[in-house]
């Protein structure tokens, strides 16, 4: 079974799933292992590993080797550039920043990585991802030179997601940016879910179980939190994960449609 098949199985089980994002450049190896263990204990379906700056293969290898001795859920690379590859991970989100103004982040880095994946990193499950940066965008938007899509133009955001569907991407990620003041709006997800039959991932600005629940209920299949995990290690991550699962199951059972009918 591929890691993508595993994620789809988790979606069938929970409705919506949670993924923990950790940036090795921001934390030491002991903290990385600790947070990875907490992610598994709290119910995260996988750990995403990567960052926009400061990550390299040697660092990734060390962190992943240490964590995988104690953690059983998959580790999926989430690279900011081709330096973010490691054979120690289980899978790779092979992403293209669709709204970047720099062709390197749309296809250039992917071409460079393709040779490495074919010859050196053959053990990685490759999951294609359309990466669409919305709202503030954070460091990801700045580093990838993206033309951020404002929440007010949900028609444009949905058009990008439809393009990603027709281009054949496995996953569509709406990224509001690390530490964003506002997460992706549930209203956008509800409209998108009716038109796009691909797993929709959402990250950025999700700090509370209430927000996580509303986003899952509206249509997010995968919800990613990172900053809140790194900056508030004492926070009970399981509360957010439980909220994600409840939102996903309530959506499957029709609660989101019921809410819409009341408005």
From TrEMBL:
<dbReference type="InterPro" id="IPR008205">
    <property type="entry name" value="GGGP_HepGP_synthase"/>
</dbReference>
<dbReference type="GO" id="GO:0120536">
    <property type="term" value="F:heptaprenylglyceryl phosphate synthase activity"/>
</dbReference>
<protein>
    <recommendedName>
        <fullName>Geranylgeranylglyceryl phosphate synthase</fullName>
        <ecNumber>2.5.1.41</ecNumber>
    </recommendedName>
</protein>
<dbReference type="GO" id="GO:0000287">
    <property type="term" value="F:magnesium ion binding"/>
</dbReference>
<keyword id="KW-0963">Cytoplasm</keyword>
<keyword id="KW-0444">Lipid biosynthesis</keyword>
<comment type="similarity">
    <text>Belongs to the GGGP/HepGP synthase family. Group II subfamily.</text>
</comment>
<keyword id="KW-0460">Magnesium</keyword>
<feature type="binding site">
    <location>
        <begin position="204"/>
        <end position="205"/>
    </location>
    <ligand>
        <name>sn-glycerol 1-phosphate</name>
    </ligand>
</feature>
<keyword id="KW-1208">Phospholipid metabolism</keyword>
<dbReference type="InterPro" id="IPR038597">
    <property type="entry name" value="GGGP/HepGP_synthase_sf"/>
</dbReference>
<keyword id="KW-0443">Lipid metabolism</keyword>
<feature type="binding site">
    <location>
        <begin position="226"/>
        <end position="227"/>
    </location>
    <ligand>
        <name>sn-glycerol 1-phosphate</name>
    </ligand>
</feature>
<comment type="function">
    <text>Prenyltransferase that catalyzes the transfer of the geranylgeranyl moiety of geranylgeranyl diphosphate (GGPP) to the C3 hydroxyl of sn-glycerol-1-phosphate (G1P). This reaction is the first ether-bond-formation step in the biosynthesis of archaeal membrane lipids.</text>
</comment>
<dbReference type="InterPro" id="IPR010946">
    <property type="entry name" value="GGGP_synth"/>
</dbReference>
<keyword id="KW-0594">Phospholipid biosynthesis</keyword>
<feature type="binding site">
    <location>
        <begin position="173"/>
        <end position="179"/>
    </location>
    <ligand>
        <name>sn-glycerol 1-phosphate</name>
    </ligand>
</feature>
<dbReference type="GO" id="GO:0005737">
    <property type="term" value="C:cytoplasm"/>
</dbReference>
<feature type="binding site">
    <location>
        <position position="23"/>
    </location>
    <ligand>
        <name>Mg(2+)</name>
    </ligand>
</feature>
<keyword id="KW-0479">Metal-binding</keyword>
<comment type="pathway">
    <text>Membrane lipid metabolism; glycerophospholipid metabolism.</text>
</comment>
<dbReference type="Pfam" id="PF01884">
    <property type="entry name" value="PcrB"/>
</dbReference>
<keyword id="KW-0808">Transferase</keyword>
<feature type="binding site">
    <location>
        <position position="52"/>
    </location>
    <ligand>
        <name>Mg(2+)</name>
    </ligand>
</feature>
<dbReference type="InterPro" id="IPR039074">
    <property type="entry name" value="GGGP/HepGP_synthase_I"/>
</dbReference>
<dbReference type="GO" id="GO:0046474">
    <property type="term" value="P:glycerophospholipid biosynthetic process"/>
</dbReference>
<dbReference type="GO" id="GO:0047294">
    <property type="term" value="F:phosphoglycerol geranylgeranyltransferase activity"/>
</dbReference>
């Amino acid at each position: 079974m591929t890691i993508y098949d595993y994620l789809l199985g988790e979606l069938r089980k929970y409705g919506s799933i949670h993924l923990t994002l950790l940036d090795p450049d921001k934390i030491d190896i002991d903290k990385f292992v600790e947070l990875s263990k907490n992610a598994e204990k709290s119910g995260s379906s996988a750990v995403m590993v990567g960052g926009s700056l400061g990550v390299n293969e040697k660092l990734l290898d060390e962190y992943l080797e240490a964590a995988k001795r104690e953690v059983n859920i998959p580790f999926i690379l989430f690279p900011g550039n081709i330096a973010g590859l490691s054979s120690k991970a289980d899978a790779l989100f092979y992403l293209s920043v669709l709204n970047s103004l720099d062709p390197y982040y749309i296809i250039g880095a992917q071409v460079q990585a393709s040779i490495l994946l074919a010859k050196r990193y053959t053990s990685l499950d490759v999951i294609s991802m359309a990466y669409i940066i919305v709202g503030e965008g954070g460091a990801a938007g700045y580093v990838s030179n993206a033309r951020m899509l404002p929440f007010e133009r949900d028609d444009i955001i949905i058009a990008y997601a439809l393009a990603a569907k027709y281009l054949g991407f496995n996953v569509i990620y709406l990224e509001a940016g690390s530490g964003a003041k506002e997460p992706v709006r549930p209203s956008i997800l509800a409209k998108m879910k009716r038109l796009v039959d691909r797993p929709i991932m959402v990250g950025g600005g999700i700090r509370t179980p209430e927000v996580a629940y509303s986003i899952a209920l509206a249509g997010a299949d995968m919800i990613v939190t990172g900053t809140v995990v790194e900056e508030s290690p004492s926070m009970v991550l399981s509360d957010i994960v439980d909220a994600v699962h409840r939102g996903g199951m309530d959506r499957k059972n029709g609660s989101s449609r019921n809410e819409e009918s009341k408005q």
